[in-house]
Structures are given as C-alpha cells and as structure tokens.
Amino acid sequence: MRRPRTPAPLLVPAALAVAFLVLPLAGLLVRTPWSQLGTLLTAPGVGQALRLSLVSATLATLVSVVLGVPLAWVLARSRARGRAVLRALVTVPLVLPPVVGGVALFLVLGRQGIVGRWLAEATGITIPFTTTAVVIAETFVAMPFLVISVEGALRAADARYEDAAATLGADRWTTFRRVTLPLVAPGVAAGAVLCWARALGEFGATITFAGNFPGTTQTMPLAVYLALQRDPQAAIVLSLVLLVVSVATLLLLRDRWLGRGAAA
User: Quick one: where is this thing mainly located (predicted)?
Assistant: First the structure.
C-alpha cells in the first residue's frame, strides 16, 4: 500500500527542524582546518586529552557493565518490592544536570564527604581531582544508559529458555551465564556503546568533581572548552573527533534502532 504524502503544514516545520539540527554540524565540517588536521591532532595537549578520554571512557564502560548488568537483571527479573523506586533512582542521572551530579559526588567522595573523609583518614587516599575521579564521574552519568538498554533486552527475551534450563537442573547463576547473557548479548553491546559514547562526551560532572588538569583529568570536552578561548582551530578539530565518534556510535547501532525504525 502506497504511503500518503506528507501534509504541507508538517513538511515545512520538519524541514526547519532538519536544518536546525544539520546546519551546525555542516558548519563544523566547513570550518575544519583540513590542511592543519594532522598537526593539530598530534599536538601534545590534544593527544593527552584524546588518550585520557578514550581510557577513562573505556574504564567507565567496563565498570558500568560489571555493575549495570546485574542491576538490570534485578529490575527486569526480580520480584522484590520497591523496584519502581529503584528504577526511578537509577534513571535520575539521565535527567539530573551533570554539574549537580558532580557536586553530589564531591559531597560523598570529597575529602570532607560522607565516604571520602573516612577513606582519607583510613587509607590516605583522596579521589577528587584525580583520573579515578574522571572514571567515577563518567560512570555515574553513563551507567543508566546501559542499565535501561539491558533491562529492555531482558524484558523482551523469551523467559521460556530460562525456565527450560531450570527444569534441566541448572541453578540460577548457571542459567544467567549460559542462557540469559547470550540471549541479551545484543542489548548489552548496544548499551555498552551508548554508555561509552556518553562517557566520552561527559563535561559537567567531570569538571566539577575531577577538575581540569592537563594529562590527569582534562578530557576532550574540557579541552574543547579551553581551546575555544585560546586556539579555536584546535577546538574545531577536537569537536570533529567527537562528531566522528558520535556518527560511529550511530552506525554501530543502526541495525538495532535505525533498521528497526525502517522496518516499521
């Protein structure tokens, strides 16, 4: 059946929306100093920010997978009371301003924080303004993306396979490892990609909780912010790198989201 034409009253606002979203990205590509791209990307500050961003985002993703997959299972499969409240708490970082998240982390893990004071007195370890603080801040804002993705995959998975494994004598841990995880592996992968991309672009919580020290806590978004004031060309190149990462993320998820939308 042939699809109806788009009404003109909808077509004009839609075209304006596309222009509003695409033109800034096109402007970034137009203003990119392509002839100096290699030189700017190999500058010491840029290289440090790039390496730190990739390492910290990867570590934040690993932590999110280790902690977030079990949490998603509890939300999707457990019958414990208070799951609705727990789900609401898990999704708070999605809507919470990142700067507020950084302040909250500082009040808990700072030198005078609820946990940070005890940690400093007992072990002499302080977390704020370190690379560890960068990973913690990125994990805080990015983990909900993975949890929501995996929870959705668990809810969509056919529970009969798990029931069959249980009837064959498998305990719950074996069923989780050998049956549940393979079933939701695409959801875990998609959530991990989203989590990594969100961690890579984190700014507010990082600068509040970890500071902005080159080579230690200065990630790419922070480097873009500073470079825009001192070296706009370097800021454009760093922004281009983040744009490429974002497009690559969409390409990795195209079969899960874009393909599903096209099929609909």
Answer: membrane
Alpha-carbon gap, residue 262 to 264, rounded angstroms: 5
**How many domains are there within the chain?**
1
- Tell me, letter by letter, the H, E, C secondary structure of the chain: CCCCCCCHHHHHHHHHHHHHHHHHHHHHHHHCCHHHHHHHHCCHHHHHHHHHHHHHHHHHHHHHHHHHHHHHHHHHHCCCCCHHHHHHHHHHHHHCCHHHHHHHHHHHHCCCCCCHHHHHHHHCCCCCCCHHHHHHHHHHHHHHHHHHHHHHHHHHCCCHHHHHHHHCCCCHHHHHHHHHHHHHHHHHHHHHHHHHHHHHCCCHHHHHHCCCCCCCCCCHHHHHHHHHHHCHHHHHHHHHHHHHHHHHHHHHCHHHHHHHHHHC
Contact 115, 109 (CB under 8 A): yes
pLDDT tens, position by position, 180-201? 888 888 889 889 988 998 999 8
Torsion of CA 246, 131, 189, 256, to 10 degrees: -20
CATH code of residue 198: 1.10.3720.10
Q: Tens digits of per-residue pLDDT, 151-184?
A: 988 888 877 777 788 788 777 788 887 888 888 8
pTM given for the model? 0.84
- The parent domain of residue 71 ranges over 46-246
Whether residue 19 lies inside any domain: the answer is no
